Amino acid sequence: MVIKSYVVVHNIAKRHNVGTLARSATAFGVTELILVGRRDFNAFGSHGSTSHLPFRHFHSLLDARLFIKERDCDICGVEIADGALPVNEHPFKKSTAFLLGNEGTGLSAKECEICDFFVYIPQYGSGTASLNVTVAASIVLHHFGVWAGFSERLRDGNKFVVAERPARQAKYWTETEESIIKEQRSRKKIATNGFFDEIRNGDPASNLLDALFIED
After folding, report:
1. Domain 1-123+133-216: which topology?
2. What angle do CA 202, 207, 212 make, to 5 degrees?
3. Residue 37: CB atoms within 10 Å
4. Are 50 and 169 in contact (CB under 8 A)?
5. Is 78:140 a contact under the CB 8 Å cutoff?
6. How far apart are CA 9 and CA 209, in angstroms?
7. Which of the listed residues 5, 51, 91, 135 has the most CB atoms within 10 Å of its CB?
8. Listed residue (110, 120, 118) closest to 11, CA to CA
9. Phi, psi of 154 (to 5 degrees)
10. What is the DSSP letter of 19?
11. Which among 182, 153, 178, 171 has a CA at the least distance from the CA of 210?
């Protein structure tokens, strides 16, 4: 049985976090990064890793769950919650999709409903209540890779060897007329709140992951 891991991101608040999540995902052998809901994110911080990672988009958590379950995967919520298991105990059984919540509020009730189990990262210092979502994802994905026995990447000096950039990376998304209308309305609302100001001002860091879901 081939063990795989997935990362599921639902309406993450800080759009630049997706780029750094992609970097961690490629480092720890993630098969796909699944975006649910909003997909207008900034790839800043990915350091080119988005070229090596397939992305998939769904408009609803239920659609994402169906896709994951069709691949015989558990869904693991990363959350400091009652009943959550310490990630260092490696409570995994098979291929797993890790669901990461909003940075400020954590996993919502709807997100928790689709999870099969939860893990948390034990902390030993008293200075913070929780970790940044990208830091937490990196720790959890590393533990899963150790449990799954993923092969360590070759090293060259003080760096790991980076594969040749694929000519074309896979991007998958689901679209319906209704979902397109909803997304257009959401974009207008976000733009009204100044979300895209830096894009209009020509900020070179505004490399939106939305481009990953558009065919050339």
Report:
1. Alpha/beta knot (3.40.1280)
2. 140
3. 17
4. yes
5. yes
6. 13
7. 5
8. 110
9. -65, 150
10. H
11. 171
CA pair distance 13, 40, nearest whole angstrom? 11
* DSSP type of residue 51: G
Render pLDDT for 142-193 as a digit per residue (tens, 0 to 9): 999 999 999 999 999 998 888 777 665 555 555 444 555 555 565 555 455 4
Residue matched to tokens 């959890």: 140
Residue closest to 28 by CA, chosen among 159, 194, 145: 145
- Cα–Cα nearest to 75, from 63, 65, 62, 87: 65
Residue type, 122: P
Q: What is the pLDDT of residue 10?
A: 87
Q: Which two structure tokens, joined as six digits, stand for 18?
A: 């997706």
pTM, full prediction:
0.77
Residues 6 or more apart whose Cβ sits within 8 Å of residue 12 = 18, 38, 41, 100, 102, 103, 133
Q: How far is Cα 52 from Cα 60, in angstroms, rounded to an integer?
A: 25
Contact at 8 Å (CB) between 77 and 118? yes
* Tokens read off for 91: 């409570």
